[in-house]
């Protein structure tokens, strides 16, 4: 009896294999392609957010300090100077004269982070911008106060925080980054590898 069933099963599995060899391969390929598209599209979350909130899509950019056009401030350490991955905005008065001054959102966007980070970062704000069907991130570091929360949407030019000095470890200034890869870790602020980072001043002037 056992032998009989074994033979039946064997015969059955052989016939299945032969018949389905080609279609099985096709099915597997289609399934894995679909999975890549639906599960691994990292932009899907933001596509949906901005589709539901189109009034927060960006059309132009402005400086994060000193309305208009950074008036009263200078860029003390430019992008890529000393491997710096952003701009350091300081008040023309020097020292801590800019401590507590307003920081503005450079464009419409979605606040993906607003909290304190250890080390030299202090309080940090991260905003995701959708602009011309691409995504950019602006990062505002060493803030004295945070006036917005993760999950907020912001309009260009609204005050989002104030300039700080991380408990006195720096003279007060705004460390400001713009990235065209929105999925990177906070990083170090300095690196010889600037992939994913763009020149904030050049980007704002151009847009
Ligand atoms: Zn800096």
Radius of gyration: 26 Å
Q: Give the name of the CATH architecture of the largest domain.
A: Distorted Sandwich
Number of helices: 4
Ligand inventory reads: zinc ion
CATH fold title of the largest domain:
Glucose Permease (Domain IIA)
Order of helices and strands: HHHEEEEEEEEEEH
Structural class: alpha+beta
Instruction: Report the major sheet.
Output: 10 strands, antiparallel
Spatial gap, N to C terminus: 80 Å
Q: What count of structural domains? A: 2
Give the CA-based shape: globular
CATH domain class name of the largest domain: Mainly Beta
In total, the number of strands is: 10
Q: Can you walk through the features of this model?
A:
The chain is of the alpha+beta class. It has two domains: 1-39; 54-206, Glucose Permease (Domain IIA). Helices cover 29% and strands 29% of the residues. It has helices at residues 2-39, 44-52, 66-70, 200-206, and strands at residues 73-77, 87-91, 102-104, 109-117, 122-131, 134-146, 153-154, 159-163, 174-179, 197-198. Strands 1, 2, 3, 4, 5, 6, 7, 8, 9 and 10 form a ten-stranded antiparallel sheet that branches. 29% of the residues are buried. Mean pLDDT is 87; it is low at 4-36. Bound molecules: zinc ion (ZN). Zinc ion binds next to loops.
């Amino acid at each position: 009896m056992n032998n009989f069933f074994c033979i039946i099963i064997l015969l059955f599995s052989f016939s299945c294999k032969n018949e389905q060899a080609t279609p099985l391969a096709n099915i597997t390929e289609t399934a894995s392609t679909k999975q890549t598209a639906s599960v691994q599209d990292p932009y899907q979350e933001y596509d949906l957010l901005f589709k539901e909130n189109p009034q927060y899509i960006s059309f132009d950019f402005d400086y994060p300090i000193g309305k208009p056009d950074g008036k009263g401030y200078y860029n003390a350490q430019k992008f890529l100077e000393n491997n710096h991955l952003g701009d350091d905005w300081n008040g023309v008065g020097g020292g801590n004269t800019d401590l507590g001054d307003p920081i503005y959102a450079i464009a419409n966007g979605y606040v993906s982070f607003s909290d304190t980070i250890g080390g030299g970062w202090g309080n940090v704000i991260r905003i995701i911008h959708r602009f011309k069907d691409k995504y950019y991130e602006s990062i505002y570091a060493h803030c004295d106060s945070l006036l917005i929360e993760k999950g907020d949407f912001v309009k260009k030019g609204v005050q989002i925080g104030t300039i700080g000095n991380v408990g006195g470890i720096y003279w007060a200034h705004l460390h400001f980054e713009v990235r065209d890869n929105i999925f990177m870790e906070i990083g170090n602020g300095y690196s010889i590898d600037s992939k994913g980072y763009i020149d904030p001043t050049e980007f704002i002037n151009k847009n």
